[in-house]
Amino acid sequence: MNGALVSTEYQAELSEIASAASLADLEAIRVAKLGKAGTITALLKTLGGMTPEQRQAEGPKIHALREAVTVAIADRKAALDEVALDARLATEKLDMSLPVSPGAPGSVHPVAQVMDELAEIFADLGFAVATGPEIEDDWHNFTALNIPETHPARAMHDTFYFPDKEDGKKMLLRTHTSPVQIRTMMNQEPPIRIIAPGRTYRSDSDATHTPMFHQVEGLVIDRGIHMGHLKWTLETFVKAFFERDDIVLRLRPSFFPFTEPSAEVDVGFTWEKGRRVIGGDPTGPNGGWMEILGSGMVHPKVIANCGLDPDEWQGFAFGCGIDRLAMLKYGMDDLRPFFDGDLRWLKHYGFAALDVPTLSGGVGA
Ligand code: PHE
User: Fold this and answer.
1) Tell me, what CATH number does 148's domain have?
2) Ligand 1 pocket test, candidate residues 200, 258, 297, most atoms within 8 A of CB
3) How many whole angstroms from 85 Cα to the centroid of ligand 1?
4) What are the pLDDT digits (tens) for 258-286?
5) Which domain holds residue 259?
6) Which pTM value belongs to this model?
7) Are residues 179 and 77 located together in one domain of the fold?
């Protein structure tokens, strides 16, 4: 080895290092030069065989070469590391330090919300939740409820019927939740206290009627039950539901084949800023009455139809439109958007997730 060789290799060494395309290439270059069998390592070894004069002349050059190559490799490695990091930053999106995106959360539908509220209120009063099929037979939906064959509610234009079955059974979409009264009395020993919320169907469609709607049925069967129990229960329920104590009810005599006596129940409201608000003085200049449900003492024939002795067992029942309750509580004026599934409508009425109005207190709270 001589000085000329070292100086000509110098530039070549450095440009090879500077143009290494990857960390793997750079490492291969490092091993080829500075490794145990590397070219520069070999040059260093030649120093041992030189005369003192030669060593004095060549030693500094060889050491300078090794130093320059070492520095060039370190520089190139730093540059390649940075390129690799930039590439990762450009392609990898996972940043554990960023807050999690909330995504698109679901929300509770007003009808589901009101059903939960009803279950909560009546649970405080000792009522269980009962259910029944939406596809009913006409015995549970009409006959057992003392609704005569000739009753207009049985007509095709009010009730959705299925094609006649071979065994002569007439199946239909239940027109009210009252068949759950029958199923409960037939399957359960009194005393009975249930509510039965669910879907009901009638051939009807305008701003306040949809072919599918929701009702909640209430039923109490026990000894010595009278209209006073009915009135107190409804008052307690309505006050808890609308979260106001200044609510009055008006029971008007009415007729249902399955209750005797029967009463339609109106709730007092007052006009506030162009809106009907439940509560206040219904007899005052801003007040009025609005019908919210049908009720009565369960007809002795209905009790007998279920295999119970009407001389021993009495009770009351009521049936109430859930959609109507939701409209009154949350200020909606059209029933149809309830079933359009339009998120803007839900958000408008405050039914976005985590923002759902909840009952602030139970009964008596
Ligand atoms: N089933 C009746 C209706 O749908 C309501 C009702 C239920 C009335 C229970 C009295 C007792 O209109």
Assistant:
1) 3.30.930.10
2) 258
3) 72
4) 999 999 999 999 998 888 899 999 999 99
5) 109-351
6) 0.70
7) no
